[in-house]
Every structure is written in structure tokens, then in C-alpha cells.
Amino acid sequence: MLSKTAEYALRATIYIAQKGTEDNKLGIDEVAEGIDSPKSFTAKILQLLTQNDRVVSSVRGRNGGFYLTDRARKLPVRAILEAVEEEEVITKCVLGLKECSETRPCPMHLQYKAIKKQLKQLFEKTSIQQLVEESNKGNLFINNQKAPKKRS
Amino acid sequence: MLSKTAEYALRATIYIAQKGTEDNKLGIDEVAEGIDSPKSFTAKILQLLTQNDRVVSSVRGRNGGFYLTDRARKLPVRAILEAVEEEEVITKCVLGLKECSETRPCPMHLQYKAIKKQLKQLFEKTSIQQLVEESNKGNLFINNQKAPKKRS
DNA sequence: TTATAAAAGGATAAATTTGTCCTTAATTAT
DNA sequence: ATAATTAAGGACAAATTTATCCTTTTATAA
Ligand code: FES
Ligand code: FES
Q1: For the domain that residue A36 is a member of, what is the CATH number?
Q2: Does residue A45 sit at the B interface (CB-CB below 8 Å)?
Q3: Which of A97, B85, B110, B130 is the most buried (most CB within 10 A)?
Q4: Chain B contacts of A143, Cβ < 8 Å?
Q5: Is A108 within the bounds of a domain?
């Protein structure tokens, strides 16, 4: 469905949104450990997410790290996909044809378009903040570890 | 969403089901041209689809080629995904966690599970034959060419 | 003002996916 | 039988994705 890059981007952003604020920034080590992802690769992906004021904010140097502004929290999840250039999942033909439309439908289009629409809704109508709120309510997971990792 | 391999596998199988029968087999050249895919690569993928009596049938030598048996036409589209080992799209966590379940849900699970269910239905409840029938009714496309290619 | 801590950035490497080419095996028309 | 035709299979190559490492820049604590 999504590339590793997009998966890590989503997990990292949600994790940072959950735990990070402007005066409690998260370091790359904590993020990578928190979402169970390769550290250096995750750092690269966070660069995409921070570039030109996109989704994630960052500060270098001592006490630096990653966090999300209130503005960013209101962004749709789709903004994360855009940052890693993977929105096409929302628009693409399931058979990989160059065009997907009513005027040029593939044999699966009629059935697939409903799914596509819901995917679109999922990514466009859901904000990062909403996911954080849900996480606060229920007991949700964002890594593969057995129990939430204790801070040392 | 799907890999090129899976996309070509779906397109090739549907195309063969549409145009090929036991006494009108299709050659790899026609298939690749018909679905707008790289010939040699498509040949490799068709090997996966023919191996141990899976989805596509083939005969070598003069008058050889690819076709679908009546049994194969009744198979769910999922059988094609299985042949290229890509069923996981139906079961995987959208954030890439190793497990996706009610007992270990990620922050998007609640919303995504409905989509997953429909994807599952699409691939399991739809048979190859059904797609062919739909194609016969409507004017559907399975390649990127402007109009259906004339046979020379 | 110096040392330390952190992200940014660049180069490179490893792994996987996608794609090609050539030989082999099988079938059939001649 | 022989030649022609076609898929199968193996080896390899190109492209892309995933991942690591090292240096540079920026900020702050001491
Ligand atoms: S054309 Fe294939 S899904 Fe729309
Ligand atoms: S756990 Fe993530 S989609 Fe089910």
C-alpha cells in the first residue's frame, strides 16, 4: 500500500505530535526508538517533513529536536503523504493505468472507485490532531514493541 | 498500492481471460502489447501465474500460448495476487506495523479497517469471469493506448 | 569563548524491484 | 526427421528504494 518511507513518515509525525511540544522537543533517537524505525533513514525522512515549513518543526543545537506547531496539528494526514511525495495512492488506477477516470475506466474501476474515495477521505478529512486524540483515548500502538517503552 | 509486478499480473490475466481460449491461445507478444507492459518482464510474471496449475494455463511450441480454463475464470481476483505473493495488501497495517488487529490497533486502525475490509471483498468476492463480463458490457480499458489496437 | 549537543546535508552502500537477453525445452507443421 | 515456433528458465543489468555514515551547521550550556 504505502512505501516504507511513507509508513515511517506517518508514524514519526504522529509520534512527535503525541509526545513533542515546542518546549519539549524530541530527539531523533527517541523518535526512531519510539516508532521502531532505522534512525538515519528516519532522520532523512524528517528532513522532508520539516523542509519549507511543511509539517514538522525542528530546532538544531542543544535542547533542539522535533515538534509540531498547533497549525501543523490541524493539517490533514494527507500533508504527510505530500511531504514524501506519495499522494498518488489516493488517485492512482488500481491496475496501474496512467489515467483513472470515469471516461477511461479499467475493468476494476467501478468497484475500486468507492475504495479510492474512502482512502481519500481518510487522508483528507482526518487531521493529525484527531489521531493524537484517539490515541489519548484508546490504548493504541505505534511500534512493534510489546509494551510502551519506559524512559530510562 | 500494488507493485508493478502485481499490476501487470492483473492486467495480463484479465486480458488473457478476455481474448484467449483453449483453442485461441495468446502469445506473449500479443499480451504485452495488449496491456502495454514490458514483454520479457511480463513473461516472467506469467511464469508465476502458470506455475503449478495456478491461474493461467500455457502450452509451448507451435500454436502454443496462454489461456484461461473455465475453472480459472471462476477464481477470485485474489488468486492473481497470491500468485505474485502480494496478498498482504489485504491484511497489512496501513502504518506498516507487523501486526494489524483489534487487540493491537495503530492510530489509524479504526478508520482504516473499513477500507481494508472492502479491499478484501473486492479481491475475494470478485471473480476473474466477472471482470470479463463487465468489460464485455461497458467500454473498458486495460492499456494506455488511445483506441483498441487493430490486429495487423 | 569553548565545548557539547543536536539537526541538516552529502556521499555512499545495500537491498529490492523492475527489466532484458540468451539458451533450453516442448510442440507441431512441413 | 527437421525446421519453425513458442513458453520456460537462468543469468545478468538497470533503476529505485531503503539504509548507513560522516561532515557541517546551528544553538546553547558551562
Ligand atoms: S481506471 Fe483503474 S481504477 Fe480507475
Ligand atoms: S493496526 Fe494499523 S491498520 Fe490495523
Answers
A1: 1.10.10.10
A2: no
A3: A97
A4: 97
A5: no
Q: Which residues form the domain of B26? A: 4-85+127-136
Instruction: Give nearest nucleotide to A66 (CA–C1').
Output: C7
Distance from CA of A149 to the nearest CA of B (A): 15
Q: Which nucleotide is nearest to B64 (CA to C1')?
A: D6
C-beta separation of A83 from A49 below 8 A: yes
Query: Considering its fold, how many domains does chain B have in total?
Result: 1
Q: Which of residues A151 and B95 earns the better pLDDT score? A: B95
User: What is the number of alpha carbons within 13 Å of residue A55 lying toward its C-beta?
Assistant: 26
Q: How far is the CA of B117 from the centre of ligand 2 (A)?
A: 12
The conformation of residue A104, written as its DSSP 8-state character, comes to S
pLDDT digits (tens, 9 = 90+) for A63-103: 999 999 999 999 999 999 999 999 999 999 999 999 999 99
Q: Which residue carries 498547533 as its cell?
A: A70
| Alpha-carbon gap, residue B61 to B64, rounded angstroms | 5
Question: Is A21 inside any structural domain?
Answer: yes
